[in-house]
Amino acid sequence: MIVADQILVESATKLLSDLSTVEVINASEKGEWAKDLWEALEDSGLTLACVPEELGGAGASLTDAFAIIRLAGYFAAPVPLADTFLASYALAQSKQKVPTGPLTFIPAGNNNQLVVKSKGDSWELSGQAIAVPWARHATHVVARVACDGKPFLVLTPRSGIQVTEANSMSGEPADDITISALSLAEDAVFPAALSDQALNNLGALTRVTGMVGSIEKVLHQSVQYATERVQFGRPIAKFQAIQQELAILAGESAAAQVIVDAAIGEVESVGAEETGLRIAAAKARVGEAAGKATRISHQVHGAIGFTYEHPLHHCTRRVWAWREEYGIESEWATLLGKAVIDNGPDALWPWITA
Question: Most buried pick, 8, 68, 183, 323, via CB within 10 A?
């Protein structure tokens, strides 16, 4: 099991518990920026935790950064911690100083139709991208672009970008952006140090890490509700059927945690490029856990769990949304199955038990 810095975890837990309240989350879904929450996280160095100090960060480990993302999932924090991590990590690996403020990251793929052209000693950026997380609140956008067939990153301020606001199922911003012939300085575009696969692996890992936190939260909510809700003269947690469902939910939460911890540990030791199969296994398994966890938690809560007024949906909707991002579980399972077939039957059991 991986172990994050305990002081950092305790600090992040206290801060998120105090400031990521039901009222703040609901206000965020109505378009209000959680300014106090973000500023507290930024002042504590939690938003750029694993960025080296010389590039503007706190110099913590990848394990520490993912521990913060997991807590953000647990508390349904309505701020772009995961996306700021992706953007800042991509910049840091390319030896670029990371700006302050919330960031968003646009990976290569069908949703990214941004094109950069060289204009002598400057650059011109044009195109559009769909469902960009937190674009409306980002101070800077980091995007993977191609120039002469080579992978580049572009760092551009949010100003000059047209944003069409939309929300994902989670209630978090997933905006469409349009850029028309935006002039950029020469140093705003630079070669990408990480491959598209490595960035996609990291993106998938941020999502399953957040899902682990959210699944853990719905488990705690469900156990608490079952012990408090009285039916036929006793708490519903005393009924065997409820106990069995809660046991399944606890098992799914534990399984999700173990497999994600294993993926984070491998990324920490060998890097994002070499951990595709471990992350594929995590994305597939946590996606499966997500379906069971959300079903059981809403069933245990009964009718009240389906209302907007009850906070259960803050985590269950995030789980549903995040399982669709950076590849659904069937896509990663197909990748996993292909690798197993290519390696042959003799390698299967040693790989599973490694």
Answer: 68
